[in-house]
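General statements about sequence and structure are easier to judge against a single worked case. When preparing material for the folding task, we compiled for one chain both its residues and its backbone structure tokens. The amino acid sequence and the backbone structure tokens for this protein are reproduced below:
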Amino acid sequence: MDTTRLIIVAVGGQGNLLASRVIGEAALIADVPVRMSEIHGMAQRGGVVESAIVFGDASSTVISDGEADVLLGFEPSETLRALNKCNANTVVITSLALLSPFTVTTGSSVYPSLSVLQALIRQKTAKLIAFDAAALATEAGNVLSVNMVLLGALIQTGTVPLQVENVKEAIMNKTSKTFVESNLKAFELGFSVAKELG
């Protein structure tokens, strides 16, 4: 099996780690070899959370600069910050719903223009799918389901070796029963928007 390297970046509290657990569970269900690692940083204070997920016969979860096949970003400036992990063949999926970092909130720095940010990503990578995942999460009935929206978009691209039914089963296994219905709806909305933008 070919090796596929996925980087997921988010701000603490956006559900990156749950998304990673769902992906891991889906891989186990499908009998796809997978290795995962996480960097939590200052997650509880709105810091960066990064997951590295490697599918296939790899001996390490380390994804060096230029090695990512797919970059999944929950927040646009964090997606831009992780661009060094990408190459000319990388597919990037990002939410355009911004969460201003502390430095922007206090006025000591300026948030990059979303159009400039997208242009920079397009220059370096093969494909960019960018949309407001927070709006779709709200439409699904749970503002916290941004992670499931982005998972739907990821699976639609076919860039990772997981099938829709395996991911849906993993969502049912790994997420709170209270939110299963809204999480599945969020997944479907993300899948649909990626199909439209693809």
Observations:
- The mean pLDDT is 91.
